[in-house]
Amino acid sequence: MLQVHVTRAFPDFTLDAAFEAPAGVTAIFGPSGSGKTSLIRAVAGLSDCDHARITLGGRDLSTLKPHRRNIGYVFQDARLFPHLTVLKNLRYGGRHDEEAVIAVLGLAPLLGRHPASLSGGERQRVALGRALMSAPHLLLLDEPLSALDSPRKAEVLPYLEALRDQTAIPILYVSHDMTEVARLARRIVVLDRGQVVVSGALEDVLADPAAVPFIGVRDAGAVLSGRVVGHSDDGLTKIETEGGALWVPGAVGRALGHIRVRVPAQDVILSRSAPEGLSALNVLSVTITGLERGTGPDVAVALQAGQARLLARVTARSCDGMGLQVGDHVFAILKATAIAPGDVG
């Protein structure tokens, strides 16, 4: 378990953040300028703090020099040595579990090449591998996909998922991209002007209507977990979640494999009665568990479908016109085509 409490005064805000991160991915999320990079630089020992208390597995890192903290750090740009091959770049970090690192990140075809001949996604995979070869007790990823275009992000994300599933150390993943966060993270820490405004298990935070002002109305939405139960001949995949069956576009995942789907709140439509004659394939029976009115025309509606939680974003006019109240039974409607490929991991 990583435990962090750091403070530092900047000219325009004060960083004052305290949180815990178990093994697995903890996302550090927030808008640009909220203090995300400042926070993980403090954890790494790369910047001075007014106060710092950082422990990992009971070991106090706060007074140690950066090179003694045994932390792997991957920056936004890969920072590889251009004159070294991929293999020599990897070995610069060390040789811990060399074969396993190369396998999990799919680096074998690249070992003899130089960084200039690699794509952006390939360079970031090598940077990840170099960090892992040092056998770190903690991994810090500072927006590692932010410089990549969408196809390169799609290329790297499966490797990050594999890394998450096969690494038993805490990973702090800095991002302002909710698609990445929803696919990778187990927990989330949301920063605003240097302060932790909300934190907790990813599914709980993203489904909480009170968190919408901090997540952002366009990024708000829940994550459903389930298992792939079949691929249809017409190009759809059926996923069985705790809230019911969900159809998504494409042949995604493997049979009976675990999968998670991000469902943006703005794509969920509510109905008082069971809909008939709709083109939408996904209709879930849900109960309203919370209503949060914002300062604008929107209302965030928390929904429970079995053990699963959803979030819908509707106008206040629709909410009032339908007379929506906590405890009401309604139907949540979601078009299969509204689920973007990047939101399925």
From TrEMBL:
The keyword Kinase does not apply. Keywords: ATP-binding, Cell inner membrane, Cell membrane, Membrane, Molybdenum, Nucleotide-binding, Translocase, Transport. This is Molybdenum ABC transporter ATP-binding protein. PROSITE patterns: ABC_TRANSPORTER_1, ABC_TRANSPORTER_2, MOP. The gene is modC. The keyword Transport applies. InterPro entries: AAA+_ATPase, ABC_transporter-like_ATP-bd, ABC_transporter-like_CS, Mo/tungstate-bd_C_term_dom, ModC_ABC_ATP-bd, Molybdenum_import_ModC, Mop_domain, P-loop_NTPase. Residues 1-218 form the ABC transporter domain. Residues 277-343 form the Mop domain. The lineage of its organism: Bacteria, Pseudomonadati, Pseudomonadota, Alphaproteobacteria, Rhodobacterales. GO terms for cellular component: membrane. SUPFAM superfamilies: MOP-like, P-loop containing nucleoside triphosphate hydrolases.
